[in-house]
Write a structure and sequence with these properties.
The chain is 48% helix and 10% strand. By secondary structure, the chain is α+β, with helices and mostly antiparallel strands. α11 crosses α13 and α11 (273-288) packs parallel to α17. It is globular. The structure holds manganese protoporphyrin IX (MNH). Belongs to the cytochrome P450 family.
Length: 473
């Protein structure tokens, strides 16, 4: 966690001060964006010191590819991820690799994302999308994109994973769990930076006391999810069913109650804000690029036909190739999980000449890697979904696109998120014309993830353009 890189000198922002380090100009509400702006000026590998804690940033596609080599590197743990362990414990996202519950939960839960499970989640996604469109359809004036998308993704994870309706669309408000989660995560992030500060221990103790009721609320909610299931039953094959019933095929081990609670919290947190943000960024770019929006809508007409309320079948979802490219491109421009850390398994020397030892970590700065001109060309700052055409993707630098992380610790929910997001976008664009707020300027809100702040859109019912029957492709 100290991350001292054996005292090697790394480029850092100008004006470093004794004790406090590089805090000058650091706006805590946009700390990550400040890191990105600084690191962009400082070369492939740079550092930033906040009190005694050193952060090291990798910014190029080349260095990212090197750090993604699974033979030499593994998932690293930043102070922010370590602070998250107060929440997720040894749940999948926050578990250290040596903790026995990581391989156990991983092996038990991977099948819950296979095709047969996804076919069941498809029905859930259709239902929550109906609820979102009804909710937005009944709204006068512009709708708040992030709020609606968060309701949608929250309901789909709770219903798909735990067969549990959180009633998000029954009230105007955001579900209290989301507030508790955001507050707890924010405290966790502050805790991460404070840990190395003078009097940091005291400040952390105060934060933890202030935060205790949020944590207690979340834990009560999760315990209620489990006890309700035990009383009333539910889908035996959803994530919760698997965790309660299944044993590891080789070792015969099962997750205990604490482990199950940690996994549920992990899925609630990891499973919704990320997808909500990805949907919101995609909509933002579609609103900015009318010609892209028109093409995406033409694709929905081609696949879904003349009925604006038509719903895609499971098999149709992967056919929205253009929409999928829009989503991929939005996640390139603004990956909602904007970085992940890597640490060496044994001492290594990087191509930059720096020595890296176990315990040292570097954070891969995805917004910079995803816009590295070496991998993406000189127009890397432009939104252009067609970069993801197969013929243009072929030959691109390996590991230059990593919105879902890498290797064995990469995102377990990737297919879940992509299927859900494409389905929702297809339904929305098919049924509605979208009018942007002409004055909107993209501002990025930092929670645990990145989200477009205060994005709104006006929806107008749309008449799909009838497409003549074609011979099947
Ligand atoms: Mn997800 C890990 C991004 C949706 C559950 N996720 C990761 C990592 C990234 C990531 C990056 C790796 C982090 C690291 O190396 O430290 N996840 C995303 C994005 C989306 C997303 C950009 C949506 C878009 N994730 C989801 C959904 C779920 C989910 C949906 C659940 C249904 N993610 C996880 C879990 C892990 C993870 C669980 C940890 C996996 C592991 O370490 O075994």
């Amino acid at each position: 966690m100290r991350n001292d890189w054996s005292g090697q000198r790394l480029p850092h922002p100008p004006g470093r001060l004794p004790i406090v380090g590089d805090v000058r100009g650091l706006d805590p509400r946009r700390a990550f964006q400040t890191f990105v702006e600084d690191a962009a000026q400082l070369g492939p590998l740079s550092a930033c010191k906040i009190f005694g804690q050193q952060f090291v940033f990798a910014t190029t596609a080349e260095l990212c590819a090197e750090l993604c080599d699974e033979r030499r590197f593994e998932k690293g743990f930043t102070p922010a991820v370590i602070a998250l362990r107060d929440y997720g414990g040894d749940g999948l996202f926050t578990a250290y690799r040596h903790e026995p519950n990581w391989p156990l939960a991983h092996d038990l839960l991977v099948p819950a994302f296979a095709k047969t499970s996804m076919e069941r989640y498809h029905e859930v996604f259709l239902q929550v999308t109906r609820e979102l469109l009804d909710w937005w359809g009944a709204t006068e004036g512009p709708v708040v994109v992030g709020k609606g998308m968060t309701k949608l993704t929250m309901e789909s994870i709770t219903r798909a994973a735990f067969s549990r309706d959180f009633g998000s669309f029954e009230s105007e408000q955001t579900h209290p769990f989301v507030h508790a989660m955001v507050a707890a995560l924010r405290a966790g992030q502050q805790q991460g930076t404070l840990s190395a500060a003078p009097l940091g221990r005291l400040a952390i103790a105060r934060l933890k006391r202030k935060n205790a009721h949020h944590l207690a609320y979340s834990e009560r909610l999760v315990d209620d999810v489990v006890s309700t299931r035990r009383k009333e039953g539910g889908d035996q094959e959803d994530l919760l069913g698997i965790m309660l019933e299944e044993r590891h095929p080789e070792t015969g081990e099962a997750l205990d109650d604490t482990a199950i609670r940690n996994q549920i919290l992990t899925f609630l947190v990891a499973g919704h804000e990320t997808t909500s943000g990805a949907l919101s960024f995609t909509l933002h770019y579609l609103l900015q690029h009318r010609e892209v929006l028109a093409r995406a809508q033409a694709e929905t007409d081609e696949i879904l036909g003349a009925d604006p309320d038509a719903e895609p079948t499971f098999e149709q979802v992967p056919k929205f190739r253009y929409l999928r490219r829009c989503l991929d491109e939005a996640l390139r421009m603004w990956p909602t999980v904007p970085g992940f850390a890597r640490t060496p398994k044994q001492e290594v020397t990087l191509s930059t000449g720096h020595r890296m030892r176990p315990g040292d970590w570097a954070l891969i700065m995805l917004p910079l890697v995803h816009r590295d001109p070496v991998a993406w060309g000189e127009d890397a700052d432009q939104f252009d979904p067609d970069r993801f055409l197969p013929e243009r993707s072929r030959g691109r630098m390996k590991h230059s696109y990593k919105p879902f992380g890498t290797g064995e610790r990469s995102c377990i929910g990737r297919q879940f998120a992509l299927h859900e997001a494409v389905l929702v976008l297809a339904r929305l664009l098919h049924a509605y014309d979208l009018e942007p707020d002409p004055d909107y300027q993209l501002r990025i809100e930092e929670r645990l993830t990145l989200l477009p702040e205060d994005l709104t859109v006006r929806l107008k019912r749309r008449v799909p353009v009838a497409v003549p029957e074609r011979t099947p492709r």
